[in-house]
Amino acid sequence: MTNKLPLYLIILLTTFAVTDVFASPFDGGHRTPAYVERDVWRHPQETLSFFEVQPGMTVVEIWPGAGWYTEILAPLLSDGIFYAAHFPRGIGVTFFDLSRQEFEAKLSSDPDTYKHVQMATFDPSRHQLDVPEGNVDRVLTFRNVHNWLKTDSEAKAFELFYRALKPGGILGVVEHRAKADTCRASMLTSGYMTEKYVIEVAQKAGFVLEAKSEINANPKDLTIHPAGVWTLPPTLRLGDKDRSTYLDIGESDRMTLKFRKPAAP
Q: Are 129 and 160 in contact (CB under 8 A)?
């Protein structure tokens, strides 16, 4: 008699183990129930797979806001290095101060989940991303590029991402997608960006566009709304006016772009 397991059983058990480890950050009870409901629009598992995010990596999440993706990334990267590059504080912007304060309180409220998260600051208008340069595997930004357009700092943002990444590292971008002929003025007021513009800014910073995905596309979103992208959920800026219509549309149509910093010669 031998105590060795058959090869097919070893492979099967290993497969289940890997699947469970990868799935737990998405399915864990630590996630906010209202956030989980948005998975149908944000497709986190497919999105992070597309960006090739893996346990053990060094990853920077740019402007994590209230922590929607942080709830997933923190446990996924518990054996790596995870920087949450949030708003600057003490610069006279009350929204920044309150948002970062609430985010840090969230981390403190659940140390088992968030004890490995390292706080950092990102402020492209002040040329600031305080993570080690050339040492990051992935930089991820979700629905943020339109914000930098307002301060003409989008080019600087992508330059900072480029500096942070290792040669061969990946920048993952998810952003509200405007129609191809949308002008800059409309992008400023609507919150929707054209794919072409985002790609051009990234390429000027030195990135190579490696792939696009329609993971986060929403063909029901025609992108023309009274209060821009904020008309749609989760913001629903118009309140009860035409609420059922906007709930039926769902969250915005989004581009999902994977850029790579070229490997060193």
A: yes
DSSP states along 197-227: HHHHHHHHTT-EEEEEE-TT--TT--S--TT
As a whole number of angstroms, the distance between CA 224 and CA 259 comes to: 28
CA distance 16 to 248: 36
Cα–Cα distance for residue pair 144/172, rounded to 1 Å: 12
Q: What is the pLDDT of residues 177-235, one digit of tens each?
A: 999 999 999 999 999 999 999 999 999 999 999 999 999 999 999 999 999 999 999 99
pTM, two decimal places = 0.90
DSSP state of 124: G
DSSP string, 3-38: -PPPHHHHHHHHHHHHHHHHHHHHH-TTS-HHHHTT
- What tokens does 173 get? 């971008």
CB distance 125 to 153 below 8 Å: yes
Low-confidence ranges of the chain (pLDDT < 50): 1-2, 7-22
Q: Are 170 and 210 contacting, i.e. CB atoms less than 8 angstroms apart? A: yes
Give the three-class secondary structure for 96. helix
Q: Check residue 254 and report its DSSP letter.
A: E
- What is the Cα–Cα distance from 146 to 184, expressed in whole angstroms? 10
**Checking phi first, is residue 51 left (phi over 0); if not, alpha (psi -120 to 50) or beta?**
alpha
Q: Look at residue 136 and give its three-state secondary structure.
A: strand
